[in-house]
Design goal:
By secondary structure, the protein is α/β, with parallel strands linked by helices. It is built from 10 helices and 7 strands. The protein has a 7-stranded parallel β-sheet.
């Protein structure tokens, strides 16, 4: 049997003001697979039509959001909570980077523990009493001259870090469209075809330079990671430029 899926962290918004910002935060959550939204003392009436409108496809998260009277109640069932804040709180708490914060969240959630990310309101962020309830603090790096992030931005950035930490997408890939990567045989035929025509034109000269020139051409074409269709196109280009119809190597 495979390992159990990690329990997703809850997103707790303390003292959010505008429904639009809550909706935008919900949309950011949906982008990165989060769904448990908890609201503490929202200023505007709830449910909120503006939050629905701003969620733009993430309305289910907004409509499933639970409302609490305090952070204590919102976090009562959680085993580990990280508070997001840019301000120095002068508290003896670990201050983590986003990557380290997510690593700790994953460690706890993979062990079957429930976790949460705590965010403050738009006007003044988290209150010290709320930060005191968290296990750690995470600070998102930003320009020292302007460290303030809006609510949805903060949720988006930490949601992205969470998602990225389990993403198996290769660091680099090439979209080959309708083609597939060329086989080595197809590449070798291209090399021979090109070098044959370059020999005829006198390009691979003098003879003692031919091996290194040939290696450079082959390295260049290999580095391009050509598709089978691109190889056929290049061979057609060679035929068109040399007028060597009927002489194409196979």
């Amino acid at each position: 049997m495979g390992a159990a899926a990690a329990i997703l962290p809850a997103v707790i918004l303390a003292d959010p003001q505008l429904g639009e910002n809550i909706g935008a935060a919900a949309r950011a959550m949906a982008n990165f697979g989060l769904s448990d939204l908890r609201l503490v003392r929202p200023r505007d009436p709830w449910p909120n039509a503006s939050a629905d409108a701003m969620a733009a496809g993430a309305e289910t998260i907004v409509r499933a959001a639970r409302v609490f009277d305090g952070v204590e109640a919102a976090a009562a069932d959680l085993n580990f909570v990280i508070a997001a804040t840019a301000r120095d709180r002068s508290m003896a708490k670990p201050v983590l980077t986003p990557a380290e914060a997510v690593a700790r969240l994953r460690g706890h959630s993979s062990a079957g523990r429930k976790t949460g990310l705590l965010f403050g309101g738009e006007r003044s962020g988290l209150q010290n009493d709320d930060v005191a309830l968290a296990d750690c603090v995470v600070t998102i790096p930003a320009d020292p001259g302007f460290t303030s992030l809006n609510l949805a931005q903060a949720v988006l950035l930490l949601g992205y870090e969470w998602f990225k930490s389990s993403d198996a997408t290769p660091a680099r890939r090439i979209d080959h469209g309708l083609g597939v990567p060329a086989t080595k045989a197809e590449l070798f035929q291209l090399f021979e075809h090109l070098e044959d025509e370059l020999d005829k034109s006198g390009f691979l000269f003098p003879p003692d330079k031919r091996p290194s020139m040939s290696r450079n051409l082959r390295a260049m074409l290999t580095r391009a990671e050509l598709t089978d269709q691109e190889v056929r196109t290049l061979r057609g280009v060679i035929v068109a430029l040399t007028g060597a119809k009927g002489k194409r190597r196979e």
